[in-house]
Amino acid sequence: QVDVAAMVRLFGYVDVTDTGFIVAVLSIAFNPLFWNVVARWEHKTRALSQIFGSPRAACYCLGAVILVLNCVRSHCFTEAMKSQPKLEGWDCHWTYYSGLAISAVGTLFVISSFLALGFTGTFLGDYFGILMEEKVTSFPFSILDNPMYWGSTAIYLGWSLMHASPAGLLLTAVVAISYTIAVLYEG
């Protein structure tokens, strides 16, 4: 049984009409849409490979763009959190350290995913025709599907708790929804 009153009270702290909040939502939704559209376009046309002279160079350039977009998304997320009120009851050591632990687990998933996949495996190399020898089944893929996505989501959740931010929690839900849609699209 969900306590709707508690959710309404919690999200009463969030001004969803705030420009910074809207920009954060748009940047969160844009990133997976962008990389999936560009990767599928490359797969169909090989246009980026032609422009950059090779599939590997094109993949590295797309990966660099994705990294920059992720920095922009994280900045927008942080600024939206900072511009909205904290939940005073959560502004304590216990919540901060819980958020830190969740972020650490998320970081472990993201870094170990990257190390297992490599740069081209992480940044859509398969759409460029850069295929891995075999499917990666080692940690963290042995315990979780899409550990990069869920690790990233955990980082945002932890960051939100560390800042006692209801706006951050709502934005984390947007991250989770965006990644869920991306997984459905990519699958």
Account of the protein in words:
This protein has helices at 4-11, 19-45, 47-52, 55-82, 93-122, 147-162, 166-186. It is mainly alpha-helical and 187 residues long. The protein has one domain (4-186). The protein is globular and about 55 Å long. The relative contact order is 0.16.
Protein topology:
Elements: H1 4-11, H2 19-45, H3 47-52, H4 55-82, H5 93-122, H6 147-162, H7 166-186
Helix pairs in contact: 2-4, 2-7, 4-7, 5-6, 6-7
Transmembrane segments: 20-37, 95-124, 165-185
GO molecular function, one term: phosphatidylethanolamine N-methyltransferase activity
Pathway: Phospholipid metabolism; phosphatidylcholine biosynthesis; Lipid metabolism
Brief characterization of the structure:
With 187 residues, the protein is mainly α. The chain has helices spanning 4-11, 19-45, 47-52, 55-82, 93-122, 147-162, 166-186. Helix 4 (55-82) packs antiparallel against helix 7, helix 5 (93-122) runs antiparallel to helix 6 (147-162) and helix 6 (147-162) packs antiparallel against helix 7.
